[in-house]
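Researcher: Please translate sequence to structure tokens.
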Amino acid sequence: MSGYYSPSITESDVGRVGGALHQSGITAYNTRLFAQFKPKHSDNTTSASQNKPALKRQLVLSIFAALPRVGPLLPLPRPAPPLFGAPPRRAPPRAQLRLVYEDPAPGALARAALCLAAAERWAPAPAQRAFVAALQRHLLVGDGAEHVKAQQLWVSRPPQDGVDCNLGFMESYRYAKTCTLIP
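Model: Translation complete:
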């Protein structure tokens, strides 16, 4: 799923979030998964055992995008019942995943998208221009489908288009005739 999880994320969280994203048609490219804790009640009800405010755990998926916005709440599937022992007497409340589109380094994705817009006119082939445009849309709005489209265009281009890069990673493996591999 995501490449980064905050320390409070469990394996169960990852599976449930992955299922919710799959059902919603959202890819997890360039995302980070966090758990936020907020008071359950506005009257600061405390937990009797610890004399601390009762906290509600909210899962938040940060999707990288130059244009910040808060997305919809996605319902998460309920956790699987325990393999051993008695199941809970009542089902836990249905959790939701909050989607937040944001730039992890404010301004960086917008600058990258502007650079891609400037570079698009120098792309000689229509497929190259389509790749640059799809990647630019992905960086601006955080649409994972645009990222997939860009990668498909990048991989399917003809080799005679020359050496290129994909977000900074040189593609030398495709030009084995001109590269020397060092064991």
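Researcher: Any highlights?
Model: Strands lie at 4-5, 31-39, 46-47, 52-53, 55-64, 69-75, 96-102, 165-166, 169-170.
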